[in-house]
Design goal:
Blueprint (H helix, E strand, L loop, with lengths): L4 E7 L4 H11 L7 E6 L5 H11 L5 E6 L3 H13 L4 E3 L4 H9 L15 H15 L14 E5 L5 H10 L4 E5 L8 H4 L5 E6 L2 H14 L11 H17 L4 E3 L5 H15 L2
Parallel strand pairs: 1-2, 1-3, 3-4, 5-6, 5-7, 7-8
Helix pairs in contact: 2-3, 5-6, 6-10, 8-9
Length: about 270
């Protein structure tokens, strides 16, 4: 029988970092049956006590935490040890090691990664830019982008653009629509990072059908016709190859993986 675990993600901030770390950890164990419990902005002993009460009400609890304040961390580790609850600190190993290497003390400041500095405001500006330049909008200023993504419908252009914006890149995307030409100013531009996205045609049929179903629209159109989609893909590939635009097949890639590939292309181009 596959035992079910109750995983408690405990953070003194938003918990976003811990979420990502747990996803990476979980991916290493097939059939890891678990329920997640989020405890964010934990900064007092009283909150730790509430957490422990929850842990003691479920089977197979496991605690993962990113806490930097020493007294809170000590209280949590002591109490989980007392109740024999597995408890792991994600930063407990790294912070002391970095203190040694850097020869300085960590400030142990909760939410330290969320300070309102220049990088933060750069990300906000990039996000605003990408939203305004989504799906071929505001083409008159599209060359202000750091990255321009091209592709036919449902090749993950928008989510990839938004993810890149969250990384601080001004990204825009332009849909490749049959019988509509993309400006030569974009296609021939040597200064900008321009990337073309493609996907398996059968996969695109399924995604487009789901899209139409969501919109309660007619499914029997050329939009979901396999042969038409193959034609769209072949035409987009021809344009990419003619203009030396790097191509990424997103069929088996997550948005994060696609974005990572684009960032690598951008870094190489600008190195």
């Amino acid at each position: 029988m596959n035992r079910k675990y109750n995983v408690f993600l405990v953070s003194d901030s938003t918990g976003e970092t811990l979420d990502r770390i747990f996803l990476a950890l979980k991916a290493q164990f097939e059939n890891f049956n678990n329920s997640l419990h989020h405890f964010s902005f934990v900064r007092t002993d009283a909150q730790i006590t509430t957490l422990l009460e929850k842990c003691n009400k479920v089977e197979n609890p496991i605690v993962l935490y990113t806490l930097v304040e020493s007294s809170i961390t000590s209280f949590l580790t002591q109490e989980t040890e007392r109740y024999k609850i597995p408890c792991f600190g994600v930063l407990d190993y790294l912070i002391p090691k970095f203190e040694t290497v850097l020869n300085r003390k960590a400030n142990r400041k909760p939410s330290g990664q969320h300070i309102l500095n220049k990088e933060y405001y750069r990300k906000i500006a990039a996000m605003q830019f990408s939203i305004e330049h989504d799906d071929g909008q505001k083409l008159e200023t599209i060359l202000e982008s750091d990255i321009i993504i091209l592709g036919i419908s449902r090749t993950s252009k928008t989510p990839t653009t938004i993810y890149l914006a969250n990384r601080g890149y001004k990204a825009a995307n332009i849909p490749m629509i049959p019988n509509q030409r993309i400006s030569e100013d974009v296609l021939k531009n040597k200064k900008k990072t321009i990337v073309g996205l493609i996907a398996d045609p059968e996969r695109l049929v399924d995604i487009r059908k789901n899209r139409l179903n969501t919109l309660s629209e007619e499914k029997h159109t050329s939009y979901v016709d396999l042969d038409k989609i193959k034609e769209e893909l072949e035409e987009s590939k021809k344009i990419f190859k003619l203009n030396n635009i790097p191509i990424i097949d997103v069929t088996r890639k997550s948005v994060e993986e696609t974005a990572a590939s684009i960032i690598k292309i951008h870094e190489i181009k600008n190195s």
